[in-house]
Design brief:
- With 460 residues, the chain is mostly beta strands.
- It has a single domain, classed as Porin.
- It is built from four helices and 21 strands.
- The chain has a 16-stranded antiparallel barrel.
- Strand 3 and strand 4 form a beta hairpin.
- It is globular, with a radius of gyration of 24 Å.
Length: 460
Amino acid sequence: MMKRILGTAFAVSATCVSANAADMIMDVKAPREPVYRCDITGFIELPGTDVCFKIGGYAGLEVYAFEDQWPPSVGAAYGIIPDGHVLENTMGMYAFTHVNFDVRTATEYGTVRAFIEGELTDNDTRTGGSFGLRHAFIQFGNWTLGKTWSTFLHLDSSPIYSDVVTVTGDNYMRRNQIRYTQTFGNGWSMAVSVEDQNYAYPYSLRATGLLGPVTAFCGVPNGCAVVNNRNEVPDVVANLRVDGDWGNAQLSGALHNNKFRDVFFGAAPAPVPGNQTDSEIGWALLGGAMVKTPATGEYDYFTLKGIYTNGATQYNEDNFLYTANTVWGACNRLVPAAGDCIVDTVTTWSVLASHTHFWTDRVYTTIGAGYQNVTAPISAFNPFVATLASDFEMDTYEIFGNISWRPVAQTTFMLDVHYGHVDFNGAGTAGGVFNPFVVNPLADDSQGAFLVALDIRRSF
């Protein structure tokens, strides 16, 4: 069992600061310490067995207020849209909880571990609410088998903030996977995994203009739709990490195979004539670091994370196009029999930084900012169509700050303030993607909004 801490005080507070900070506690590296007589802090022995277990988690209440342009249901700055188009309450509250079970047994192969965590959220119903399985995995030696954080992620470079929002440039993917972790000397480690490639069901945008689809290509009046094709190849993900007294850093990479095809509208999901199927390899890179800054305070630290994706948008998913990976259109308008194909890929890049300062052992603050660019070349030059939508490009940035007070151990009150801004760069969109200038011709090309949240949490 390996434990990772961000600093003495931060390790105590991270469990109760925010959903994102709490997530950092669980390290899914292969456990190394054998369990003897359940002498691990917080674990107890199940009578009559050789099993040690621990129950943990937290309960919390989130109170939020958004400006009218920022839909609370989105919770990320890319969701900011022109005034007058948010038809949901901009102030509310909800209760939430995470409950986890950690079970370990010492064997001749080392510690064998099973970990399960669920999440429940409720706002205004008497009973019920939603339930989600966050983690369910087994660790056996160097192997991790099941659902947990993607090997791509570097959680230590994720800032502290409230549960209701995901900051621009951050990511919290949990995937079914098979992972192998190998540790080396001097704090170095490496992990390689195969992960479920259908996470969030990546899709392809329809192109417009000269490369756009023509109904006649499909041979039916209603035309075709582009959908995921059968894909037998999982994503391949790897990271290289180093830990030291100064903090830690990680470099991650991922490969994803995009496969799409045309299908008839209202018909069986079979390829249309002309062999209109295509595939393209997408990829993603991440660099992240958490560096302690004793010059500003004994427990202070700085975080930095950068992500770039090309045809693998799910690795930078909190953006306007979500998990759109490719652009789909007619390969040759003059030769319909050539069929449709992938004519380009969607690219994204982002950077996110923050600094956390401990004023006392009970009061600390985090300030930070994130920026993200999304580009989708969904149109080709067409001099015959004056109203042709331009390529979609969107810039999003977010500035945030929060203050946390921990009156007693494992209990935190946090006030969190964010300003988000989106810029559509004068570009419309096509293929069913929201076009702010069609919905509201008087909309601004750029739009900003504030949100304020109070996050109250008790961990156990």
